[in-house]
Design a protein that fits this description.
By secondary structure, the protein is mainly alpha-helical. The protein has four helices and no strands. The protein starts with a helix and ends with a helix.
């Protein structure tokens, strides 16, 4: 009986500790700022809410939805970067996944 209780206790500890583990954030915001300055700033403001050719990116992660109506998540933001649309070119092959992760990390800071 004691072995069963110890096993249950250990299983509970493993479950609790795994739920507390947080995935390491992807991307480097400083690198993302540099990439966004080169790739995104031509069409998007990152330091104001004013629209350029494309919508401002400042506060993107504080908004509830993207322009396409989908929630602001890393996956949805990356999908927009990859596919482009509404005049924005597709960056699927123009940026690496690592560069996109850097840009997303930067967007979370503004």
């Amino acid at each position: 009986m004691r072995k069963i209780l110890n096993s249950i206790f250990c299983l509970g500890l493993l479950t609790a500790s795994s739920s507390l583990m947080v995935a390491a954030p992807k991307g480097d915001a400083a690198k993302g700022k540099e990439i966004a300055g080169e790739q995104c700033a031509v069409c998007h403001n990152t330091d104001s809410d004013e629209k350029k050719m494309g919508p401002a990116l400042k506060g993107l992660y504080k908004r509830g939805k993207l322009k396409n109506g989908k929630p602001v998540t890393d996956a949805n933001v990356k999908a927009v970067i990859n596919a482009g649309g509404s005049g924005m070119p597709a960056y699927q092959d123009m940026m690496t996944d690592e560069e996109k992760d850097h840009v997303i990390a930067f967007l979370k800071t503004i």
